[in-house]
Amino acid sequence: MTDRCHFICSLIYTYCLADCALFLSFQMEEDSQTSDQLLDDEAYDDHVNECEQVLDIEDNEQENGQTSVSPHIDDQNGESHRSNYLPPVIGMEFESYDDAYNYYNCYAKELGFAIRVKSSWTKRNSKEKRGAVLCCNCEGFKTIKEATSRRKETRTGCLAMIRLRLVESNRWRVDEVKLEHNHLFDLERAQNSKSHKKMDSSTKRKLEPALDVEVKTIKLYRTPIIHHGNSNSNDGEIGNHIDQFKRLMLDRSDLDVIHAYFSRIQLMNPNFVYLMDFNDDGILRNVFWIDSRSRAAFRYFNDVVAFDTACLLNEYEIPLFTFVGVNHHGESILLGCGLLADDSQETYIWLFRAWLTCMSGRPPQTIVTDYSKALQSAISEVFPRAHHRLSLSLVIQSILERLGEFHELEEFGNVLHRIVYGSLKVDEFETAWEEMIQHFGVTDNEWLQSLFDDRERWAPVYLKDIFFAGMLSFSPLFEGYVHKQTSLKEFFHMYDLVLQKKYQKEADDDIVSADSNPILKTRCYYELQLSRIYTKEIFEKFQDEVEMMSSCFGITQIHANGPIITYIVKEHENEGDMREIGNFEVVYDKTGAEVRCICNCFNFKGYLCRHALCVLNYNGMEEIPFQYILSRWRKDFKRFYVADMGSNNVDITNPVQWFDHLYRKALQVVEEGMISQDHYMVAWQAFKESLNKVRLVADKHV
């Protein structure tokens, strides 16, 4: 058997051991441009798939300055063979039985064997076919009656096959696959077999999925099927040639590293998921992976997510993309990873759909990214309702880098910082920006102008209605660990170590927050109130605001509209110069005890500012209103990092759904049982008791 087949089979075997509880529905829709297989996240809630995407590798070489696809050499017969049809995997779906048969027939012809229908079955009282087994024509042996025939024996008892079954009303799904053959492949004999003679090799039929944003599907597997009808156009060949350059630049050792890591993690973590994107020639383009902890953490921290493209846009050796959130201690957490062939809109769309499906179709409220037109377009398509904003620190960094040779750069940076962070109103910001570029003579700088045109996506003065949880800016999660020359092997070697270090820090912070009794610095009850509720790190930030209430003075009512009152709170902005006074407008609604300051600290950072606290205190509010105490910061909120296992809706007449539902729930108990030794003992006892009860029911039916 070829190295390729060994590699594929080892992946399948590993995945079956892990018995992954994510259902990947491969759906194909007919259209006219490409052949893509899709993952439908609507099916995610109701089913469990026992197969993951299989990695199929075609070695690539650089020759004469061009990228060429190296032919695959069959170890059994030494013949050169270029694979156009990827091996079948469990979960593949087809529009009809004929499509499924034609696909397997093409795959067989290319590999060098023929197929036949071993068996098929129909619906009761109907001639409609509902299932079939397609096997290698070397399956089985001659019967006693056939043994007397002079015809040459061609059967070897080969077990290679696929089992198809009708799902829903018109879809055919592969639900069993055996790839290994016990005989040599014979391309010439296969060409002359009955199954291949039925097929006109000059015609092919392609199946194309319809991409529905609301349904949220993923391009996952590119499978050329058979196209009926002649076409003289060579557009497809040109497209394929261009598409070959969109590939992960990995060598065989890198692929071995990825395979080894994914296989090991799946054995330890059944809810670990990875998805791979191939082009039509089976060349690996993109990879996405996520573990159960990240999927579970997103349930608690889905309000703000940063998409980190630093490695990709800065041309690091590893084209890493990370989804980053912020936890209840204000620390960054990993919510998924990807390795991408390029930074095109198409690539980002594939990645975002993959990630969104693993998150049960639940998009984040706010997305923070670097500046990229392709990224912006992809986010608009996949996350149309999310607030997409740019990382403020990255915007400022890009401005200073573009003006690197500017002789007044330091002074310019100070002025820019003061305008961006100090402007409280839109007209203040725009006037100050115009004065700045006039003063420093950079009015003709196209980069500055383009950023100013896009100012509503990064300048804080325009973002006051959006919640950021402290992530107006973000730092790379692997900062200090991944450098420009870090290899893929080095990355995966330290990947687990970095995550374990972060997990341990979160656990330590949880213990410290639960056991600590913070030292209070004022007599304000707001400080005491949140010291009992918030984690240590967030409370200390809030405590600074309480302390700085002493710098506020002169609360003045300037407008009233029924229960809604507007105040001006004066503040000494510089301790060294008492003449520097800031005026902050605060709106207070007595009816709902709602307060909002023009500085917008609550939306930006997740806790009330000193100006709002002063107004609450001025109006006799003894406690901070409940709507300003966020569960995401609470230290008494129990968070279980166990993946959401989907819908509880079960068809009680469907045994397959019985299995899926019981499996998901059992796996949830397993994961929670691994939290500690006490959890393990409780889970183990519960399993024993449940098994005994089930057996009692079974005994009654004997």
Give a short overview:
With 702 residues, the chain is α+β, with helices and mostly antiparallel strands.
Walkthrough of the structure:
- This protein has 22 helices and 23 strands.
Helical fraction: 25-40%
Number of strand elements = 23
End-to-end distance: 47 Å
Largest sheet: 7 strands, mixed
Beta content = 15-25%
**Poorly predicted regions:** 1-82, 200-242
Order of strands side by side in the largest beta sheet?
A: 13-14-17-16-15-18-19
Radius of gyration over all CA atoms, rounded: 31 Å
So what's the overall shape?
A: elongated
Total helical elements: 22
Residue-averaged pLDDT = 77
- State the secondary-structure class: alpha+beta
List keywords for this structure.
single chain; 702 residues; alpha+beta; five-stranded antiparallel β-sheet; 22 helices; 37% helix; elongated; disordered N terminus
Secondary structure topology:
Blueprint: H1 3-18, E1 26-27, E2 37-40, E3 60-63, E4 66-69, E5 72-73, E6 80-81, E7 93-94, H2 97-111, E8 115-122, E9 129-136, H3 144-147, E10 161-167, E11 171-178, H4 187-191, H5 194-197, E12 217-221, H6 235-243, H7 252-268, E13 273-278, E14 284-290, H8 292-300, E15 304-308, H9 310-313, E16 320-326, E17 332-339, H10 345-358, E18 366-369, H11 373-382, E19 387-390, H12 392-402, H13 409-422, H14 426-439, H15 446-453, H16 488-515, H17 525-531, H18 536-547, E20 552-561, E21 564-572, E22 581-589, E23 594-597, H19 601-605, H20 610-618, H21 655-673, H22 677-700
Parallel strand pairs: 15-18, 18-19
Antiparallel strand pairs: 1-2, 2-12, 3-4, 5-6, 7-11, 8-9, 9-10, 10-11, 13-14, 14-17, 15-16, 16-17, 20-21, 21-22, 22-23
Helix pairs in contact: 1-7, 10-11, 13-14, 17-18, 21-22
